[in-house]
Amino acid sequence: MLDEVEITKKIVESYMQDLLSYTSVDVAIVGAGPSGLTAAYYLAKSGMKVAIFDRKLSIGGGMWGGGMMFNKIVVQEDARHILDDFSINYERMGEYYVADSVHSVTALTYHATRAGAKIFNLIGAEDVIIKNNRVSGLVINWSVIGDLPIDPLSVYARYVVDATGHESEVVKTLVRKNNIKLNTPSGEIEGEHSMDAEIAERAVVENTKEIYPGIFVAGMAANAVFGSPRMGPIFGGMLLSGKKVAEEIIRRLQ
Known about the structure:
The chain is α/β, with parallel strands linked by helices. It has eight helices and eleven strands.
């Protein structure tokens, strides 16, 4: 016989166990798009305790929609090995590799969570924790509360990754609320430039770095912070950015 209240208890008990367990992590990633999910997989696979927070109900960022809602994505040769790492099916079309965007998102999600990364959807990062001039964690809250004055909770992290895409939400908050200089030419957020896929694909990997002690940028957040172009529905750079940030953090923590 099904018991509605017992079902409710099991949901609440299990979720609270997860939330309590992930109040202190090795790496907290904000944004469960392609770069965030890729980073989470390689980090968790190496034994790191990883939590991803995404303010939306669905995860995957803009990858779901492919190009203008044609649910196909393109990846160049440099990143093909990442498709293989995630067992993503693709076909070769000239010099490019084309994959189904829905299949790609679900594969990234499956492998990241199977490796041990924990995803908390509907939770956003509204601030960071700073101790000794270093980002040391996140201030989190339910994204559905909107502008209601609800006090947040906190999560400690040895490193934070801003993978929030074009908005670079975490870094914007960091700059707005603190008198700091970023690791950019001007010390400020440079702002995303208009599309140039060739430059953007290289830049998104080059720009994947620690922007201030304790916080990295990855994916389109990296290009937005460093003033590089957007690239459109080619995702090789996004995947390579996620792998690069994971490798850099692993190197530091191990």
